[in-house]
Amino acid sequence: MLGSSSSSSKGGGNNNCDYSFKILLIGDSGVGKSSLLVTFISNFVHDLSPTIAGQERFGTLTSSYYRGAHGIILVYDVTRRETFTNLSEVWAKEVELYSTNQECIKVLVGNKVDRDSERAVTQEEGMALAQQLKCSFLECSARTRANVHQCFKDLVLKILEVPTLLEKGSTAVKKQILQQKQVRKPPESNTCCFQ
């Protein structure tokens, strides 16, 4: 059910990052959370089996999973209405209950739009739910890569616009950033990369 990723702004390895963000991908099993992430970070499209993080028996980790998240991508499968319904009835409530960053940026993603002939949730319904949840909305396809990069890029750019989210990184990350800034001048512009 759950999946997560840490992302960084400004290219290179961990030692060259200006920012480190905790980004979660949440939603029912089988909606394509891991596929979206793998498609984003690689040049290949993969058919993935459900991941360990997708198994319900790991529910006891829920509160620590949400703690300190800078961004959350809520994913549903446009061909399975129950995955859409569960976002408002289950997942959005978990975000509200466990998320410790009140200004956390959220994006609602309808995945698997390449299977449009099997669609069970309209784009208009997705936009209406996004408005209700006060978050951005995109439809994506991990298989065709449609809007996958746009989803992550939009999320990171919105995180960068919220000063409190930049301040809420881990102590280790803050120390690393401060040490780097003492050694070199701040960059003129930020570019984003994910690891």
From TrEMBL:
GO molecular function: GTP binding; GTPase activity
UniProt keyword list: GTP-binding, Nucleotide-binding
InterPro entries assigned to the protein according to its UniProt record, in alphabetical order: P-loop_NTPase, Rab, Small_GTPase
Membrane-protein topology: Lipid-anchor
Family matches, as Pfam families: Ras
One GO CC term on file: endomembrane system
Domain of life where this protein originates: Eukaryota
Principal subcellular localization: membrane
Protein localization: Endomembrane system
Family: Belongs to the small GTPase superfamily. Rab family.
Name the record gives this protein: Uncharacterized protein
Native source organism of the sequence: Gossypium barbadense (Sea Island cotton)
